[in-house]
Amino acid sequence: MNATDLITCSLNAASEEDTLRIAAVLAGLCRPGDALLLEGEVGMGKTSFARAFIRRISPQQGDITSPTFNLLQTYPLHDGGTLWHF
């Protein structure tokens, strides 16, 4: 697989706890350069997912906010990289 390959999948969580577990597992599988697109209606858990994902790969983060109004949040990673949350 190379950088131009695209993998798509759909995951349905039965609860917020399931959403948080899925996010943590995916965070453990993702590598630098990977991108995730979360799609769903307002209130479907995208921000909860993003918070759990970011906390898994960057546990030192304090407040993790939704980039609704400022469009982008960045979070430094322990390896010197940066996570971009659009």
Provide tags for this entry:
86 residues, two-stranded antiparallel sheet, single chain, alpha+beta, 30% helix
Describe the structure.
The protein has a two-stranded antiparallel sheet with strand order 1-2. Helix content is 30%, strand content 9%. Helix 1 crosses helix 2 (46-57). By secondary structure, the chain is an alpha+beta fold. The longest helix has 14 residues, at 16-29. The mean pLDDT is 82.
Q: Which residue ranges are poorly predicted, with pLDDT under 50 across at least 5 consecutive positions?
A: none
Distance between the termini: 25 Å
Rg result: 13 Å
Which strands sit side by side, in order, in the main sheet?
A: 1-2
The total count of helices amounts to 2
Write down the overall geometry: globular
Summarize the biggest pleated sheet. Answer: 2 strands, antiparallel
Query: Which H/E pattern describes the elements?
Result: HHEE
Please render the helix and strand layout as text.
Elements: H1 16-29, H2 46-57, E1 73-76, E2 82-85
Antiparallel strand pairs: 1-2
What can be said about this structure in brief?
This protein has 86 residues and is an alpha+beta fold.
